[in-house]
Amino acid sequence: MITALLLGLLGSFSHCVGMCSAVVMLFDRQPIFQNKFAWVLAHAGRVTTYAILGILFGFFGQSLWSLEKLQAVLSIIFAVMAFYMASAFIGLTPSPEFLFSGIIQRWGRAMRAFKSASLPTCYLLGLLWGLLPCGLVLTALVTAMASANAMQGALNMLIFGIATLPSLFAVKWFVKKSTSLAWSRGLASFAMMFFGFQFAMRGFAALGWVEHMMVGSVMFW
Which of 18, 9, 20, 16 is nearest to 187 (CA)? Predict the structure, then answer.
């Protein structure tokens, strides 16, 4: 849960501001979004989608848990994705959204199809917003799968979604202050590398390549 919290909180300040600013501006053009409750409904829909995806990925991980060494494989997959996202945060590698550019364009056209939104439609738009291909969300979903539990996966994604709210509610301000977000990108990159290292070592320990490390009664890896 701590991983999901920091992933959403730190990642959103550097990644989501750039990724979702266009979505925020697109919604903001509709008169209904002058109502702050419309934004609450849209974000509630987005977080709902994350929780549903968390259930699905958690259940998928749970159903495969009987396979030997699955935990190690999932941990190493998360580590690889975390290291890649960390390098993308500081511009060393392309953002993974480039892999989904075609899907993102079709998603944008679907969003523009809602010419006049009502309050109930705002929640629907939020549900669709949650399906926007995003490298940060995909990374979070691997943690949901690694939990190997549908409810834990939903909780991880719920916490992740809630943790992205501060930056997305303030996205207009952050877009204007984008040059001041270098510290956030560096901090998010460091946090992602830290969790990537932790999960990689946990995977190696599950494979018997290294010893598990305990910090008091807590397994660090």
Answer: 9
